[in-house]
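Postdoc handover notes: sequence design on the structure in folder B. Input tokens:
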């Protein structure tokens, strides 16, 4: 079935400018409270460069793991797409979402390109939704693992923020899964031909994961590896700036920041990410300047890797012969 290419709908310009304004306001407030020189490594050495490069490498590896997670989600619908194709789509989506000023995330681009690759808009949409839902499981699990490895973190001021975000994510996931799996809720749209067919497609995917635990384990395993790579990027940012905090603290708090920064409040999470790091790391003796620096460095690493998606985005989607195939 051929898929007609449609450009993503343009959002209202005021939404973009509002998110830019919020990002600028949050960053200006944070930076006004600190000394700018605290944003940089106090004693740069060879390890500073090693951790910085390591963070970029881990960020790049994370995109590959994201594409693998997407591939596992597509398998749920009996669609098999080569990893190299999905990696290309993911890099283009990262460039579109992180570099180009837009309120449309890279997921919209991936759904569009995925539809042309798979031959089905509803499968492309549902696979991206399933892929994203795994974050509601993987991030809280990693945060709880961090607290389990170092229980004393539970006594740190503001640790409850990380626990609360984890609990909210799990509750939201439970609600979404209940609605998506219920035959009388999302299930009644599975045979619709209007836009609600996309909700029905998500229902089909959730139902298959519920009935086939091996598929669910594959998707969740890929998600855990990807989110672990995100924590590794934050760890590299922490070490690049020479901040001395327990590794378990990074594991416990980085997922909470990752959950908070996806809220559609600012542009690419700027300001929200840095503010969360100040809240969570200050009680560990990390200065506000260092905490903001970790957030900006984390963003810079992701931005550098996103630039590699520019050629993929410029060339656009190209369907390769023999892709995809169904079991």
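Designed sequence:
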């Amino acid at each position: 079935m051929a898929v007609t290419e449609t450009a993503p709908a343009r959002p209202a310009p005021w939404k973009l400018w509002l998110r830019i304004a919020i990002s600028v306001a949050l960053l200006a407030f944070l930076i006004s409270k600190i000394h700018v020189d605290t944003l940089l490594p106090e004693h740069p050495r060879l390890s500073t460069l090693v951790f910085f490069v390591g963070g970029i490498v881990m960020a790049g590896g994370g995109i590959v793991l994201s594409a693998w997670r997407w591939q596992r989600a597509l398998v749920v619908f009996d669609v098999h797409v080569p990893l190299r194709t999905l990696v290309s789509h993911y890099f283009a989506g990262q460039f579109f979402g992180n570099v180009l000023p837009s309120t449309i995330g890279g997921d919209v681009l991936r759904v569009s390109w995925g539809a042309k690759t798979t031959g089905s808009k509803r499968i492309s949409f549902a696979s991206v939704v399933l892929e994203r839902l795994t974050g509601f499981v993987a991030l809280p699990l990693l945060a709880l693992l961090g607290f389990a490895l170092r229980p004393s973190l539970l006594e740190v001021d503001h640790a409850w923020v990380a626990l609360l975000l984890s609990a909210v994510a799990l509750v939201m996931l439970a609600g979404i899964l209940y609605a998506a799996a219920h035959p009388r809720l999302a299930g009644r749209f599975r045979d619709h031909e209007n836009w609600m067919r996309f909700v029905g497609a998500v229902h089909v995917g959730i139902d298959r994961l519920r009935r086939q635990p091996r598929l669910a384990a594959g998707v969740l395993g890929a998600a855990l590896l990807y989110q672990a790579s995100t924590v590794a990027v934050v760890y590299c940012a922490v070490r690049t700036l020479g901040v001395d905090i327990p590794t378990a603290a990074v594991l416990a708090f980085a997922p909470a920041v990752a959950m908070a920064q996806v809220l559609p409040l600012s542009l690419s999470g700027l300001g929200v990410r840095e503010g969360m790091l100040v809240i969570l790391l200050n009680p560990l003796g990390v200065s506000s300047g260092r905490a903001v620096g970790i957030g900006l460095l984390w963003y810079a690493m992701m931005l550098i890797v996103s630039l590699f998606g520019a050629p993929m985005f410029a060339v656009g989607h190209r369907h390769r012969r023999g892709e995809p195939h169904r079991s």
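Context for whoever picks this up: Residues 42-315 form one domain. Don't rerun without checking with the PI first.
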